[in-house]
Design goal:
Layout lengths: L8 H4 L19 E7 L10 E6 L5 E3 L5 H8 L9 H7 L5 H10 L8 E5 L5 H6 L7 E6 L3 H7 L5 E4 L5 H4 L6 E7 L8 H11 E12 L4 H6 L13 E2 L2 H10 L3 E6 L8 H13 L14 H32 L7 E7 L3
Parallel strand pairs: 4-5, 4-7, 5-6, 7-8
Antiparallel strand pairs: 1-2, 2-3, 3-9, 8-11, 10-11
Helix pairs in contact: 3-11, 11-12
């Protein structure tokens, strides 16, 4: 997304939340508990955010949730705003070529689809990778940013759709058009993940397949690391859905869940991500466009020097992540899962 001029302080601190809700958005239970309260640990934008979970179904969600305007604000790249480069690089692992190859390979056992829609495609790097396994498939992309339009020019997808799949103006004309719909790390950022799921089923043909990869809030690392657990990524992640909830929702629609697995999708970045975030926030605060008085130069230089000095510590944590990965993938330490479901005929 292109950089925009830094907003003024009133714009950056304007209310961007919906009213707080007292029930679970997934099951309707009123038995909620607070998981954490935090700020924007990666991009340092102003604001405080609360994550609750449901004692009955385990659904984890931002409460109060950002408004549509708030989502735009916190996804926007602001010129001059600091970033945690190490944490950003770890988050980017979710969209690495290696993981895209793994997701595409998982679909080879279901035949070659004629048409495929990738939801939340961004720059459509996943369709470009999946085409290596499915050269005769027609790939389309959907995203709520104009990036997907540029992906058409780059010949990564054939058609681009801008918006949300749950918008009837988008899903209506696409009804029963696709053999495969993929949602890779899309549901956690969707304001209404259930509506996105049902819209995905509407655009699938009977017998078509739904491929989902998303974060698991039941991960032991989530409890151990608290607000430093990188997958929380407040305020950009709105919902974290436990696997049993996603399975039950799809089965109630008549779908058959064919695969539900953590092993190929676990991302070994829990300890290194927490170390990077904690280190960054233990140091002198960075300069930001919304600070009334910038820090003196010696504090900026000290921060940069200490961040560089702390990189070996992050490296040690990354090594621990990779050593633990074989165990994590097979236990409750896993942070991500893949679900493949078939729509009923």
């Amino acid at each position: 997304m292109p950089e925009l001029p830094a907003p003024s302080v009133p714009q950056a601190t304007a209310p961007v939340h919906e009213p707080r809700r007292e029930d679970c958005p997934w099951c309707g239970s009123g038995r909620l508990r607070n998981r954490l309260r935090t700020g924007d640990l990666r991009q340092y934008k102003p604001g405080n955010f609360t994550v609750d979970d449901c004692r009955d179904c385990g659904h984890t969600f931002q409460n109060p949730r950002l408004t549509a305007e708030g989502l735009v604000h916190y996804h926007r790249t602001v010129r001059g705003a600091p970033r945690d480069a190490t944490a950003d690089a770890l988050v980017a692992l979710r969209g690495s070529r290696h993981r895209h190859l793994s997701a595409a390979r998982a679909m080879r056992g279901f035949g070659e689809p004629e048409s495929w829609l990738d939801v939340g495609t961004g720059h459509a790097r996943f369709p470009a990778t999946a085409r290596e396994f499915f050269p005769y498939t027609s790939f389309d992309g959907l995203d709520d940013t104009p990036s997907v339009v540029r992906a058409v020019s780059a010949e990564r997808v054939e058609e681009a759709h801008v918006g949300r799949l749950s918008d009837p103006r988008i899903s209506g004309p696409l009804r029963a058009r696709y053999d495969v719909v993929s949602m890779l790390h899309h549901l956690e950022g969707a304001p209404d993940p259930r509506a996105e799921l049902h819209a995905a089923l509407r655009v699938l043909r009977p017998g078509g397949h739904l491929l989902i990869e998303t974060l698991d809030p039941r991960s032991v690392f989530a409890a151990l690391l608290g607000r430093w657990w990188l997958p929380y990524d407040q305020p950009r992640h709105l919902h974290l859905i436990p696997p049993r909830n996603l399975r039950a929702e799809l089965e109630t629609t008549g779908c058959t869940v064919l695969t539900l697995d953590h092993r190929p999708t676990h991302i070994p970045h829990d300890l290194s991500g927490a170390t990077s975030l904690a280190l960054s926030h233990a140091l002198p605060a960075p300069d930001t466009p919304w600070r009334a008085i910038p820090p003196p130069p010696f504090r900026r230089h000290a921060r940069e020097a200490l961040l560089r000095a702390g990189l070996p510590l992050v490296g040690v944590a990354a090594l621990a992540d990779h050593l633990l990965a074989p165990i994590a993938r097979r236990t409750r330490l896993a942070n991500t899962y893949r679900l493949i479901a078939r729509k009923s005929l």
